[in-house]
Amino acid sequence: MRDSPLVALAERLLGKGFDIAIYDGFVKLSRLLGKNKEFIEREIPHLDSLMRESAEEALNGAEVLVIGHADAQARNAIIALAHGRRIVDLSGYPDLRKIPGVEYEGICW
Questions:
Q1: Tally of structural domains, the chain
Q2: Is 36 a residue whose pLDDT tops 80?
Q3: What angle (nearest 5°) sits at the alpha carbon of residue 67, between those of residues 64 and 73?
Q4: Calpha distance 16→72 (Å, rounded)
Q5: Domain containing 48: what range?
Q6: Which helix (H) or strand (E) holds 58?
Q7: What DSSP element (H or E) covers 97?
Q8: Can you tell me the distance from the alpha carbon of 100 to that of 5, in angstroms, rounded to the nearest whole number?
Q9: What gap in Å lies between CA 83 and CA 3, rounded to an integer?
Q10: Which residues in 50-76 are b (16+ Cβ under 10 Å) and which e?
Protein backbone atom coordinates (compact mmCIF):
# COMPACT_ATOMS: atom_id res chain seq x y z
CA MET A 1 0.00 0.00 0.00
CA ARG A 2 2.81 2.39 0.82
CA ASP A 3 3.47 4.75 -2.09
CA SER A 4 0.77 3.04 -4.16
CA PRO A 5 -0.50 5.14 -7.05
CA LEU A 6 -3.97 3.80 -6.24
CA VAL A 7 -3.77 5.38 -2.78
CA ALA A 8 -2.74 8.66 -4.41
CA LEU A 9 -5.71 8.36 -6.79
CA ALA A 10 -8.11 7.71 -3.90
CA GLU A 11 -6.73 10.74 -2.06
CA ARG A 12 -7.18 12.95 -5.10
CA LEU A 13 -10.75 11.77 -5.74
CA LEU A 14 -11.65 12.35 -2.10
CA GLY A 15 -10.04 15.78 -2.22
CA LYS A 16 -12.21 16.67 -5.22
CA GLY A 17 -15.35 15.67 -3.31
CA PHE A 18 -16.10 12.31 -4.92
CA ASP A 19 -17.74 9.58 -2.87
CA ILE A 20 -15.68 6.44 -3.22
CA ALA A 21 -15.87 2.83 -2.11
CA ILE A 22 -12.85 0.57 -2.17
CA TYR A 23 -12.62 -3.19 -2.45
CA ASP A 24 -9.33 -5.04 -2.40
CA GLY A 25 -9.44 -8.68 -1.45
CA PHE A 26 -5.75 -8.57 -0.59
CA VAL A 27 -5.92 -5.68 1.88
CA LYS A 28 -7.05 -6.31 5.42
CA LEU A 29 -6.68 -3.19 7.54
CA SER A 30 -6.44 -5.23 10.73
CA ARG A 31 -3.29 -6.88 9.36
CA LEU A 32 -1.41 -3.71 8.40
CA LEU A 33 1.83 -3.25 10.26
CA GLY A 34 4.81 -0.95 10.38
CA LYS A 35 5.35 1.50 7.53
CA ASN A 36 2.18 0.45 5.68
CA LYS A 37 0.05 1.14 8.75
CA GLU A 38 1.77 4.47 9.41
CA PHE A 39 1.32 5.49 5.79
CA ILE A 40 -2.40 4.73 5.75
CA GLU A 41 -3.02 6.41 9.11
CA ARG A 42 -1.24 9.53 7.83
CA GLU A 43 -2.54 9.68 4.24
CA ILE A 44 -6.05 8.19 4.44
CA PRO A 45 -6.96 7.93 8.12
CA HIS A 46 -10.59 7.13 7.30
CA LEU A 47 -9.74 4.26 4.90
CA ASP A 48 -11.67 1.80 7.05
CA SER A 49 -14.91 3.67 6.31
CA LEU A 50 -14.21 3.45 2.56
CA MET A 51 -13.35 -0.25 2.43
CA ARG A 52 -16.02 -2.76 1.45
CA GLU A 53 -16.12 -6.47 2.23
CA SER A 54 -16.94 -7.56 -1.33
CA ALA A 55 -16.73 -6.32 -4.89
CA GLU A 56 -20.52 -6.41 -5.08
CA GLU A 57 -20.80 -4.12 -2.07
CA ALA A 58 -18.27 -1.68 -3.57
CA LEU A 59 -20.22 -1.62 -6.85
CA ASN A 60 -23.50 -0.80 -5.12
CA GLY A 61 -24.55 2.66 -6.30
CA ALA A 62 -21.36 3.30 -8.27
CA GLU A 63 -21.56 5.24 -11.53
CA VAL A 64 -17.89 4.91 -12.46
CA LEU A 65 -15.73 1.88 -11.69
CA VAL A 66 -12.01 2.51 -11.47
CA ILE A 67 -10.25 -0.83 -11.65
CA GLY A 68 -6.70 -1.05 -10.34
CA HIS A 69 -6.30 -4.65 -9.22
CA ALA A 70 -9.09 -7.19 -9.56
CA ASP A 71 -8.87 -10.93 -9.09
CA ALA A 72 -11.08 -13.27 -11.14
CA GLN A 73 -13.87 -13.22 -8.55
CA ALA A 74 -13.97 -9.42 -8.48
CA ARG A 75 -13.91 -9.24 -12.29
CA ASN A 76 -16.84 -11.68 -12.46
CA ALA A 77 -18.81 -9.40 -10.13
CA ILE A 78 -17.91 -6.40 -12.29
CA ILE A 79 -19.01 -8.21 -15.45
CA ALA A 80 -22.32 -9.19 -13.83
CA LEU A 81 -23.10 -5.76 -12.34
CA ALA A 82 -21.45 -3.16 -14.59
CA HIS A 83 -24.26 -2.66 -17.12
CA GLY A 84 -24.96 1.05 -17.64
CA ARG A 85 -21.81 2.17 -15.87
CA ARG A 86 -18.45 3.48 -16.97
CA ILE A 87 -15.27 1.47 -16.39
CA VAL A 88 -11.85 3.06 -16.19
CA ASP A 89 -9.46 0.11 -16.31
CA LEU A 90 -5.95 0.91 -15.10
CA SER A 91 -4.67 -2.67 -15.57
CA GLY A 92 -5.93 -3.75 -19.00
CA TYR A 93 -8.06 -6.75 -18.09
CA PRO A 94 -9.19 -8.32 -21.40
CA ASP A 95 -12.41 -9.72 -19.91
CA LEU A 96 -13.60 -6.21 -18.95
CA ARG A 97 -13.10 -4.64 -22.38
CA LYS A 98 -16.27 -5.86 -24.10
CA ILE A 99 -18.97 -5.95 -21.45
CA PRO A 100 -22.30 -5.12 -23.13
CA GLY A 101 -23.86 -1.82 -22.07
CA VAL A 102 -20.66 -0.46 -20.52
CA GLU A 103 -18.60 2.57 -21.48
CA TYR A 104 -15.05 1.22 -21.22
CA GLU A 105 -11.83 3.17 -21.12
CA GLY A 106 -8.41 1.66 -20.58
CA ILE A 107 -5.58 3.92 -19.49
CA CYS A 108 -2.04 3.61 -18.14
CA TRP A 109 -1.24 0.26 -19.76
A1: 1
A2: no
A3: 110
A4: 31
A5: 5-106
A6: helix 55-59
A7: none
A8: 29
A9: 32
A10: ebeeebeebbeeeeebbbbebeeebbe
Residue 71's nearest CA partner among 57, 54, 88 is 54
The Cα–Cα gap between 25 and 106 comes to 22
Length of the chain: 109
Distance CA 21, CA 59 (A): 8
Residue-level pLDDT at 58: 94
What is the predicted pLDDT for the residue at 8?
82
Measured CA distances, 13 to 10, 16, 19, 32, 34 (Å): 5, 5, 8, 23, 26
Q: Hey, what amino acid is at 28?
A: K
Amino acid identity at 46: H
- pLDDT at 46 (0 to 100): 72
Taking 60 as the threshold, does the pLDDT of residue 2 lie above it? no
